[in-house]
Amino acid sequence: MKANNRFGGALALLLGAATLVAAPRSAYAQQPTQLVAEMQAKFPGEKAVYLDYRTDLTFAVQGDSVVVLARHHQDMLHLDAQSAMYANDKVFNSHFSRVQKLDARTMVPAGNSYKTVKVTDYKEKFEVQSGIFYDDTRSTTWSFPAVTPGARTVTDYTVRHPDPRFLLPFYFGSYVPVRHAELTITAPKNVKISHRMFHVEGLKINFSKQEKGSTVTYRWSADDLPSPPRDDDGPEAAYYLPHLVYFVEEVPSADGQARRMLAGVPELYSLYSGFVSKLDPQESPALRRVVDSLAVGAKTEQEKVQRVYYWVQDNIRYVAFENGMGGFIPRDAGLVYTKRYGDCKDMANLTREMLRMAGIKSYLTWIGTRDLPYRYSELATPGVDNHMITTYEASPGQYVFLDATNKYMPFGMPSAFIQGKEALLAIDGKNCKVVPVPVMGQERSPVSDVSQLVLDEKGGLRGKGSLQLLGYPKVMQSYALDGLDQTEETKYVKALLERGNNKFFVDKYSVSHLDTREKPLTIDYEYRLQDYVQKLDDEIYVNLNLEQPYAHDKIDAAKRRLPRVNEYATQNHTRTELEIPAGYDVEYLPPVAEMRDPVFGFKVKYERQGNKIVQDKEVYINYLLLQPQQFGQWNAVVDKLNAAYRETVIFKRRKV
Question: Key word Signal present in the record (predicted)?
Answer without folding.
Answer: yes
